[in-house]
Amino acid sequence: MRLWHKMLQEKASAVTDECMSRVQTSVETDLLPDQSQQGLSSASAIPSSSEPEQSIENIKVILHERELWKKFHEVGTEMIITKAGRRMFPSYKVKVTRMNPKTKYILLIDIVPADDHRYKFCDNKWMVAGKAEPAMPGRLYVHPDSPATGAHWMRQLVSFQKLKLTNNHLDPFGHIILNSMHKYQPRLHIVKADENNAFGSKNTAYCTHVFHETAFISVTSYQNHKITQLKIENNPFAKGFRGSEEGDLRVSRLQGKEFPVISKNMVRQRLISSHSHLAGRLGAGVLAGHSQVLSSYQYETGFPLPNSDPQDPTSNQFPQSRDPSLLYHCFKHRDNGRHLELGCKRSYLETSSAGTEEHYFRSAPSYESSLLSHPYCAEGISSREACMYGSMETESGAGAGDTDDMANSPSINCNVWATVPPYPRYSVEGIAYQPFTAHFTSAATHSPVVPHPTTSMVPRSQGDLGVYNSASVQRDLSVIHPSSSSSSCSPVVPGSRDRSGHPSLYHKKPESPLRPHRDFSAYPTQGSISIRDPLCQYQVELNSAGSHWTDS
DNA sequence: TCTGCTAACACATTTGAAAAGG
DNA sequence: ACCTTTTCAAATGTGTTAGCAG
Question: Which tens digit of pLDDT belongs to each residue from A54-83?
């Protein structure tokens, strides 16, 4: 952690003292009564007296369908990840207010590890099963409407429902890559577009909002039957699995039987439930109790109750990004009873430790700064689908669990776009921000990690998808703070320029129209990235020594 | 044997183009 | 000719399941 802190300081070296002094690090969970009644969770930054009323830290974000999220969260949200990519459900939707109606903003989401553990579903509970796998490339999902004016964002719900999760490390579609059986925390970033409708320059202000009820464990198949039932009950696409009250009639219908059939998963779940339930209450006679439990649907929740605060911030210290390579993508895209073993070391609940929101906010490092250290340009964006930015950059030597340094870190939360490489040892080379279809070879030259899809690989235009890998996303944004919701913001640091003299690393021409349907593309502009070609994927490799997730 | 992953499957919803109507 | 509404097929999203692999 000390190394991590040092690196942050190095990163901040390019930032003026004035900038540092103006850093807005404190954020506040703000759940308004009326919003609570609406089932909305809001997160807003503490307003800065020196900032205009509609400055970025005043933006309020309300999580849509918060009650539904809480339902899942109380049971232990699981999100299916597949090779082809799977949507999240509940989908991430927010209501944004207090934006400057005329200012243009870019909304994006990233999903960062919530801790450095690998989990397994044991005894109907999520338990730590070991150390986490190396983090996947930290991709960002940029809302397809970005950039858009505050009036646009506030007009209606902002939906990220088309965000997809995958476990394919070589995913060519720009989906967010996750490891199965790991816990993750989605985060929303609101970035103020600069004068060029871009962000990435030093003077880019942004804020980050985290709703802890959106945390989830990624799985390739559902582990907790309660989650399955919640999904079936609430997801329209799963209506086909809604049977009668028993919920199994469809299964029997599919199998041409006249009686309900208990699926394997349900049997597993019920056995697990009965095992734990009876073991706890009866201590014996498990077999005798099975039939009763099978019919009574008594399940134990795998996640701790809300009050137990499984997303405790102090439990979320974990190494940051692990892979040195940085990738930019942008291309168009059409869019068991076996768990009864008792070898679990400690429960998922136990991995959390007590912590306060105050602690979280005060100790929050500047993990956003590097997220924004890579260029984004929405020029030419014309896709209804989102752009995704990802990073495979990693940090070696950064350890998990060093909470003290984190808590004691002074104003390192300088939320401005880095104008120099986040870390001296990293450098962007071999700029490959070229239309994928036209510069395949060139891009491939610089990107040995992610395969370069040809146009033939791209499904028909169900969605135009841009993928951007943001350096340091994993590294600097990985520590999740478990308040009911939280946010952190930054002020604008005016007058800054990137190394190439451009006002920003990512930019969009001011005249670029805002359309409902957009195509995303990116192109290099002397070290900056912009988006132009709807059928492209861009990759940039950071020149950095390989790093590994270490415990140091 | 245990555990996790994948592909195929059936069903429901969404999407978008074509047809119909005003 | 233009616009709106309706229709319908294809695409997409979903959980389940059997089988495979380490």
Answer: 678 889 999 999 999 999 999 999 999 999
Q: Does A531 reside within a domain?
A: no
Structural domain count, chain A: 1
Q: Does a structural domain hold residue A229?
A: yes
A232 closest-nt by C1' vs CA: C15
**Is residue A310 in a domain?**
no
Residue nearest to nucleotide B15 (CA to C1'): A462
Question: What Å distances lie between residue A366 and A223, A249, A490, A543, CA to CA?
Answer: 35, 52, 10, 23
- Collapsing DSSP to helix, strand or coil, A377 comes out as strand
Residues 325-364 on chain A lying near strand C, CB distance under 7 A: 334-335
pLDDT at A419: 28
User: At residue A404, what are phi and psi to the nearest 5 degrees?
Assistant: -65, -50
Question: Residue A208: which CATH number?
Answer: 2.60.40.820
CA A208 to C1' C2 (Å) is: 47
pTM exceeding the 0.70 threshold for the entire prediction: no
> Which nt has its C1' nearest the CA of A261?
C16
Cα A277 vs. chain centroid, distance in angstroms? 34
Query: What DSSP element (H or E) covers A208?
Result: strand A206-210
* Residue-number span of the structural domain to which A216 is assigned: 62-233
pLDDT greater at residue A325 or residue A153: A153
What are the strands, taking DSSP E only, across A101-163? 104-122, 125-131, 138-142, 148-149, 158-159
Is the CB of A234 within 7 Å of strand C? no
Residues 41-70 of A with CB under 7 A from strand C: none
What share of chain A has pLDDT > 90, as a percent? Answer: 24
Q: How distant is C1' of C5 from CA of A334, in Å?
A: 27
Question: Nearest nucleotide to A166 by CA–C1' distance?
Answer: B5
pLDDT one-digit tens code per residue, A350-380: 333 332 222 222 222 333 333 444 445 444 3
DSSP A419-446: SS-SSTT--EES---S-TTT-HHHHHHH
Residue A160 lies in a domain: yes
Instruction: Please check whether strand C approaches the CB of A235 to within 7 Å.
Output: yes
